[in-house]
Each structure stands twice: as C-alpha cells, then as structure tokens.
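Q: Here's a chain of 419 amino acids. Please give me its 3D structure as tokens.
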Amino acid sequence: MPPLLPIMAAAILLQAGNGLLQALLPLSMQAQGLSAADIGMVASGYGVGFAAGCLAAPRVVRHLGFVRAYAGLAALMAILVLALPLAGGGIGWFLLRAMTGVGFAGLFTVVEGWIGAGTQNGQRGRILAIYMVTTKLALMAGPLLLDPGGDQPFRLLILLILLSVLPVATARPARPALPTAVTLDLRGLFRLAPSALAGCFTVGVVTGTMIAFAPLYGLRIGMSASAAAALLVALQGGSLLAQWPLGALSDRRDRRIVIAAVAANGAILSAGMALLPAGSPEWLVWTGFALWGSQVLCIYALCVAHACDVVPPGRIVPTVSGLLVVWAAGAMIGPVPGALLMDRFGPSGLFVYAAAGCAGLTGFVLVRRAVRERGHASERAAFLPLPAESLTGAAISKPRMVIDTADVETADGEPPEGR
C-alpha cells in the first residue's frame, strides 16, 4: 500500500476538484442565462468527451509514461478551467465541457491503470476498495468548497488539479511498467473477462439511472425536496461502508462468485424497494437506498479487480480504459428506459428496472463461470510419464529466458530510445 500512497493522494485531490466542478458548472451557466435545455446539452458533452478520452488515454500513457501523461493532462485541465468563465454560450460551454471529459478520462485512466498494475492479485480488491472509498469521500466533499463569489471557485479548482501533480511527480519508486498495448480491444477483453465487461456495463446502466432519478423518486413518493436529495447521500454512504469488506472478501474468494452474489443481493433489495408500500416512513426509504448502494455501487471496483487479475500486465491500462468506456456507455443508455418505466409504473418502476438489470448480471456471471470451468476441465490432458531424456521432457525441463522489450522501462519511467 505505501508505494501507492502518492497516486492515491493525487486521486483524492483530483476527485475533490471534480466534485467542485460538478457543483460549479450549473450555477455558472445559470448565471450566464443558459436555459435548462442548454445545461442538459452541456452535461451530455461531458459523457461524449469522457468516452473519447478513454479511447485515447492508453496511447498517451504508452507514448509519454505515467508521470508525464498525468502532468500533461493536469495542465490541460487547468487551461480548460481558466477558459470556462469565458465561454460565450451553449456551444462554447459544450465544447469546453467535452474537453474536460477528455481530461478527466485520461487522468482517471492513469490513476486506475497505475493502481491496477501496481497491486498483486491477492490484494487488488482491498486496494481498489480503499481507492473507491477515499475518492468518493473527496467527490462528496468537493461541493462543500464552493463559494459562489466571483472567480474564486475556478481558482480553487485549478489549485486542486495542480496540487494533485506533486505526489505523482514524487512517486518514482512506485511507477509501474509502461503498457505494451494501447488499442482498445473489447472483443479480446470479453474473451478474457466477460463477467467484468458485462458487470461494468450493467453497473453503468443501473447506477447511472438510479443516481439520475433518485431525487425524482423521492419527490414522487411525497418526500420534500431536501429529503429526496438526501437519497443520493444514502446511496453513497451505503457504498462507503461496504466497499472495503466486499473488496477484502473478493481477495479470498473467486471474484466472479462475489460479483454474482452482490448483484443477486441488489436484485433482492430492488424487488423489496419496488414492493415498498405507499406512505412508508422516510427513514425506511433512506435505509433501503443505503442498503441498495452498499451492494450495487460496489460492483464496479470488483469488476475492475477481476479484469486486472486475468489480463497480462502490459494490457492493464487499456483494460481499465475499456471498462471505463463500457461503464460510460451504460450510464448514457440506461436513463432512457428507466424514465419510461417510471412513467409507466410510477416510482416503483425505477426499482423494477434495477432488479431486472441486477438479476440479469447474476445469471450471466454464473453461466459464464460454469461454461469457463467446464471448458478448463475438458482441456486437461491425462498425465503421461516422460523420461527426462526424451525430446518432450528436454523441451519442458530446459531453462529459457525470454525478455520482452515492450515491458522494459528506463529509470525515469520513460520508454527506451527507438520506441
């Protein structure tokens, strides 16, 4: 864990800035007279930019190295934040917000790729749990730093982004090897870790919808605006409490079984919330949301840990980037059918949708695990005793050394000359 402290510290500062920006942008756009439709268009620009940034980030890391890639992307983010107050209208805000999506996607790819490559399989679940808990706390604390007066929030945001570069620049002993692959190969990733890919997509669909409509759910069951908004806090609070125990459990068990079990719990809790009678006390609704968040909001980190377990070390960065893309795609697609179900069945339609998604993920993971285990069993050949002097025995026993120059990194964390 200590070698990863610098990158963890950078992630905390970065997420605090991200939380501040999420609260600052709508207020700034409203102050400039933008309509609700314009603000919604700008919000969609972030998703477009985030997906594009995930596609480009592995190549940037491969070309520049982890440290220079992070520093360059942080500088880009600082420039964009300086430009935000100068945006003249909806189009300008859309383009700048899309570019911040590119920057954040690149920075998070560097951070999560660094953590994934720098941890062992037996510890990855717990390390990623620590990462998720600390960065969620920072994301929740970011809006508390908001002071709407003048340009002060933008300056504070730039300060947080640039401060996050300092621990990265001092993390020389912890720099992982550069990625040997930069292309996004979702088909190959599906062959290696189908449960992780399906899990990230389902989590994007379900949690993206839940976070988008949780306050609306509260309003439609008769809660006040402040009580409905507190449902988001309940969701995140539940996930903070359960992320570490679930990560530690996944380090000791087959992660696919843990993913399936957590998704099954999410399906059961969703069904219970869908059947919650009208007029239920607010504390019961908050408790239900906290329990739901303690399961479903924890699946993403488990899926990332599982994927990093099974892919070669040189492909961890594009793997993390690919999972982010799949999650973002799910988050963009999910709210549309979720809204239709809420209009058709009322507030309970939100949890009917969540139950279907979680149940589908549970079945998929269990079926894929059974198919994979059956395939491995059929590939096991019968034992044949071979004398050491036979050609086959000699080929097995002869020591060999293979050096893959793609995994070589210089002391400065940069690719060797000629690469």
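Q: Can you summarize the key feature?
A: The two ends are 31 Å apart (CA to CA).
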